[in-house]
Amino acid sequence: MKDRPPTRREAPRRGTTPGLSLAIRIQARPWRDVADLRQRIALATQAALAVAPLQPLAGAELSLLLTDDRRIRGVNRDWRGFDKATNVLSFPAAPPGRVAQSPALGDIVLAHETMTREAQADGKSLGDHLSHLVVHGLLHLLGEDHETPDQAERMERLEIAALARLGIANPYADSDPLDLAATPAPTLTSAAS
Question: Which one-letter DSSP state was computed for residue 100?
Fold first, then answer.
């Protein structure tokens, strides 16, 4: 028997990973079918932290919202001015120079349908693609970006190194890293300035 009204939403489930406190909220039902979802997210955050030059305050909170295309489109429109769905958005709680002192690292929002389409189109598992985008989003929160060719190459190297720690193949093996900066992929986005 539940002792709360059925319309009340559950609080995000909290977990810990070395260096971070994770708050994961599932807003779209298909995420519940992803095998080892919480463990995969925790391992991806650990891998990103292991390669990131900038480290967060010990115990800083990282919030992940696992949603759908309709909802991420609204977030993308309202916060970034782009009226379209995307795979991942990152919203840092502090500028890079203050990450090491901030008790909140920021928010990562992930859309299930877009990620599923991308994984299928690239012949990847959804779990591996999820790990990649968690790494990507977390690196944005830690001050990394891909606006210039040098930034794109650096961020790709960090992503590849983090994913290698997880036994995941280089997602950029068939692409020119400079193309990512010259024509930013519309689905690899960040709210970081």
Answer: G
Give the domain ranges of the chain.
13-182
CA distance 82 to 19: 33
109-131 confidence digits (pLDDT tens):
999 999 999 999 999 999 999 99
CA distance 72 to 92: 16
Q: Which of 5-19, 117-131, 143-157, 163-177 has the lowest mean pLDDT?
A: 5-19
Phi and psi at residue 62, to the nearest 5°? -115, 125
Kind and range of the H or E run holding 64: strand 60-67
For 17-55, write each residue's pLDDT tens digit. 567 999 999 999 999 999 899 999 999 999 999 999 999
- Paired with 89 in beta bridges are 109
Listed in sequence order, the residues at least 6 apart from 64 whose beta carbon sits closer than 8 Å to its beta carbon are 22, 23, 24, 25, 41, 107, 108, 109, 110, 134
Cα atoms in the Cβ-side hemisphere of radius 13 Å centred on 148: 4
Pairing of the two strands 20-26 and 13-17: antiparallel
Q: Which two tokens stand for residue 43?
A: 């391992």
Instruction: Give the gyration radius of the chain's Cα atoms.
Output: 16
Paired tokens of 157: 């190297």
* CATH architecture of residue range(s) 13-182: 3-Layer(aba) Sandwich (3.40)
